User: Fold this.
Amino acid sequence: MSKVYICTAIPYVNGNPHIGHAMDYLLSDAYARFRRMLGDEVRFQVGTDEHGNKVYSTAQKNNLPVEEYAAQNSQKFQDFVQKLNISYTDVIRTTDPEHVRRCQEIWQKLTPHIYAAEYDGWYCEGCERFITQKEYDETNGVCPDHQKPYERLTEKNYYLRISDFKDEIREQIENGKMAILPEFRKQEMLNLLEDTPDISISRPKKQLSWGVPVPGDESQVMYVWLDALSNYITILGYPDQDISEFWPATAQFVGKDILRFHAITWPAILLGLGLPLPQTLVSHGHVLSNGQKMSKSLGNVVDPMEVVERHGLEAFRYYFSRHIDTFVDSDFTWEKYDEAYNNELANDLGNLVQRLATLCSKNEISGIVTGDCKDLGPEYITLMGNFEFSKAFDYIWSQIRELNKEIDQSKPWELAKNGETARLQTVLHDLVIKLVHAAQLLEPFLPDTSASIYQIFGVDGAIQRPETPLFPKD
Ligand code: MSP
Assistant:
């Protein structure tokens, strides 16, 4: 049994959760449930990123004190995570007093690598990121993600001397000690690392009051990313407690837009603290809406609750784990969603369960003990272990389609009509074993569906046909 620590990016609380936010949660949940199936002990963190200008200015626009605004939205994210049936173990808010105090201790530990200097350059509030002159020139001074001109800042900042750690970070990325997935992002990060200057880790209080105060300098507040990244270890109790049981993280799940912070800034902080780097950074693509980035101005932001209401939670988990590719951008449209629901969940799986349960109940076949088929199979274990979730899902689905074919070919109804009882028993029993096996493979993705299949088939006793299908057709 191993100890596994899974981390998810903590969303800003400047708005409601949208369908894109579900990706970190669903991927990490599939991995957490998979590792538990293997018998490992899993800790799994989720939380909210509450400081910084972006949250502060939206609170002001909403005429609410920032603490109240952040608390309201943080609750919405917690409700969202619960609604998605995410099997997390720890929740953090970056406004938690314990987190704030621990961040200040982290700062103190980093002081040998910190220096003060004047920053004269560009900043994007949407990204909460300092922008280099090269990036400014390449984008003509407008953030491609937020469609807003960069601000010019001239201010005193504290800097983290990233040059102290560059060689070590490069080496660990290159030799895979800190793996970056997918592979093509690894080279991207190595190139970026070469160009990365020392990182500013504070803002003057007069520019940013909503943040963790810098110890020993009342005029400064910590840069939101220093505070946010630290959540992965403060939640484990660092620096008060020994975190070596669960640190380094087994896997950290982040969107492609924030991989740079996790592949460069975060390792620099960890090395500064003398801590090991995470074992794997899994960077997922973005969910597009009708082929475009979701944005309020385009009016194409999809409300996840609406998606859940349309066909239920399992359908939501299904679409976002299978049809949103794990590593590259993929599209959500209502048409594609309905199609996947009707053709795959309702037809391929729902019908299969209903047909087989009907045949078994008519012919008095009893269920099986699920423990009989615990062997998950090497192909599945490799795909899941390599974080290839959409491929693992395709693999499960090929088995489900195969089972549908097997029923059609073995024609149990004819065996029954012809009185071939012994053969009928063997055929149905074999199909039940295969279906329960498929349900086991599905468990990390669709836990409730697996539980229903176990309930119908995975018992010693007569199999009953469920009154309502698992996935009723529209
Ligand atoms: N607060 C930072 C993360 C700090 S982690 C120490 C942040 N927040 S965010 O709200 O902008 O994004 C949270 C997560 O959601 C990130 O992993 C981000 O990539 C992901 N997504 C945001 N929009 C997305 C899509 N449209 N599609 C998929 N994931 C997206 O960044």
Observations:
- The chain has a mean pLDDT of 94.
